Input
Amino acid sequence: MSEFLGVAFSPYVGHWTGTAPNAKVPLWNSYSEQDIVRMLDAIAPQFNKISTYGMGYAGYYPPTTPWNQLDSNCHVAGAAAQLNRQTGRVAIEVAQGIYQQANPAHQQAEIEAAFSAAKEANTVYPKTVTSLVFTNEYVINAETADAVNAMILANKQKAHEFSIKVGVRSHTFGEIANPNSPYYTQLKTLIQNCDFIQCNLYPGVNAASPTEGVNQVGQAFHQIKRAVADINPQCEVMIGETGWPSQGISFNNTDNNVANLLAYYEAIDKWALEHRVMIYLFEAIDEPWKSNQNAKVPPDNPWQGPNGAEGHYGLWYLNAQGEYTQKKA
Output
């Protein structure tokens, strides 16, 4: 187990049933806390850190809905705490995601839910939730950078009182190495106020091999790291997502198979250890819903359609017997 590798995690791992255009995946609230304990139990022998994406609020829930009666993301921190209590140690440490919500009332409810989940989990087993990740791939301009910065400022002291760090995950932190970026100033301010940032970094388009992909990710990371160190040396720079799918068409048009997925995992593991950088691999378990079986053919984004790779980044998958099986070449 590498101290520098974790996995991005969501519990929506069920398979499609039926045929297009009426195929279906399990309901978003259909995975119980105990179901998620089983998932985390499969992951824990190899990874003791997960980073999640949200608390489960959606437009179909009034903002007054109790935080533990939402879509199943709301149960992840609690499931990790249960597993930690069963094993008598921190088998899974959680960076709790806070998803961006269009409705301000939902956004505040999402933030309060994350605090509630963290507090309850850490009561069940201390140090289960160690950080809050404010939004995912939402920082794309000056306005959204300012919005996330406001969330950080409003909640940082409260989080620190619970010994919880605050930060943000985005795919745009490369902009901080460009002083001419239209939102350089806003990004700089955001980084000044974060305990950490998680950078989503993937191999470039047509990367010839997993080794080349890791080199590309490493170069991008170091460029960001140098820029952040000049702004806030106390801000830890992590990789919040990186990965290589086992099949399908990916947004970066790589050669996708299980052998390459595993080779990328091994190469990025070695890189993380050498450079002492915390990395969350995308992702723990395949999420079939991301390869939309009902998308029109050809889909607008081929990587999200029925032959897309989005549902195949997991190191594990749910097999026909209901077991979480690790992919092997």
Observations:
- Strands lie at 5-8, 49-51, 93-98, 129-136, 165-170, 196-200, 236-242, 279-281, 316-318, 324-326.
- Residues 210-231 form the longest helix (22 residues).
